[in-house]
Write the structure tokens for this entry.
Amino acid sequence: MIRFEHVSKRYDTGYEALARVDFEVEAGEMLFLTGHSGAGKSTLMKMILLMEHPSNGNVFVDGHHLAQMPKSQLPYFRRNIGVVFQNHQLLFDRTVYDNVALPLQVAGYPHQEIGKRVRAALDKVDLLDKERSNPIMLSGGEQQRVGIARAVVNKPTLLLADEPTGNLDPELSNEIMTLFRQFNEVGTTVMIATHDVELLKRMNKRVLGLVQGKLVHDGVLW
Amino acid sequence: MSPQKPKPERRPNRMGATINRSERAVREPARPEPRAAMRTQGAVQSKTSWRDKLDAWSAHHSNSAIESLLRLLETPLQSLMTWLVIAIAVALPAALFVVFGNVQQIGQTWQDSSQISVFLKQDTSATQAQDLRVRWAKRPDVAQATYVSSEQALEEFKRGSGLGELANHLDENPLPPVILIKPKIGGNAPDILNSLQQALIADPLVADVRLDMLWVKRLHQFITIAERFVVALAGLLALGVLLVIGNTIRMAIENRRDEILVVKLVGATDAYVRRPFLYTGLWYGVGGGIVAAIILAVGFWWLSAPVTQLADLYQSSFRLQGLDLIESLQLILIAGITGLLGAWIAVTRHLYLIQPR
């Protein structure tokens, strides 16, 4: 599903965000990406989404060689990837329903289909009763769940989450992790960036550890 | 999807830790079942028919059109100002074009009535003059030839000039007999008029031929210059409209930056992101065009009464022609297209710069 080959990223300022990173993720896997802030977690995630381009090396996602992807294909490629951000990236000028419906509207789904899928996604994250609310009225955990509903509403084959539990207490972050585990169980590849070591221990999944842009760990934490 | 998925098996690895299913999967790549199953699902989910796509596309068009219009109406004062700026820029050249069309119309009437006065020699008899008149009237380039004897000319002079008393004191009639020739040509053909003049003056009975060619030429030249001036002005003002709309759209894009970033991340095509802004530009243009049409209608209505009075004083049936319905619609259409174009330029320039980071 994801393959990094000797991937490096050096910014114009000379700062090296990633240094010769190699790893491969199988379809249907669930894994974590960890490291201190600035270790390169976000850069790595952004490369998968083609928000960043490697200075060296190759990135393959879902059979696509990203460096060779024509610009016109980029939107269609992104429709197959769900993304959850730490800061939710919700739009506060519309309802929860409209926020979740966005990926479907963009992909041109018919009206009734959008309604069905949005409600299914909101049901999954247990927010069906909040569909008419403005996300600004919701708690942090609820907002994060809206973000997750939006990320999965299009049934992506790959789900990326950047610090999805960043501002949440352990109980809420457990809830969120349960959701991710459920999506993984139905076949979605899930990759989560976090610096929460306790969480990594609890989840007991494969972990990629980054230190100063280098991949120093690949496997389950002890 | 894969309910048969085994629980992660734990096996000690080199470091004495355990590895889970996924790591084993790397070592044993031959695990086609879950992967194949997922691919099938992927294919099914992305299968939206062309009809659905078309429906969604047209739905997004009408949504964008309505939403962008509502957005403009949400800030009525700001939108009205933009509309006014556009309206003024559109109305100014349009008004000049209209005034100019009216002037041309006056010129046309004058040229139609343009006649050549052929002054005959004082001693020409009435019979000779009539013969001449009949001969000239048969010429292909003459529409009408009228004979005015010196007596008739004197009568006209007495009536028209208000110097009747003075004329009564004259011993003899100083006015020559005249044949008035109406040329049969489209008004703007100074060359034909010239050659006709040459032919008339060649007759031995003719003393003089008066053709005021100069004003025809001057009017023509004036019209050409005015035309170019208005075209240049319209071009400059159109550029102004493009810049105004471009700048307004740029601000609209900045205001919706977050939204643009999010929809780009969830896979919106450039066309999808562009669409609402193009409609915004179209509405600015169309709104400006409508306001301009109203300004022109009111302005010409306001002018038409004094112009009619003035025309009456000149015994002219001239009436000021404003824009009719079709012309007003054309004006709105042109303004709309200009708005769309301005938005297009702004969108192409600025949307490209907003990429998810």
User: Anything to note?
Assistant: DSSP finds seven helices and ten strands in chain A. Helices of chain A lie at 41-48, 74-78, 96-107, 111-124, 140-152, 170-185, 197-203.
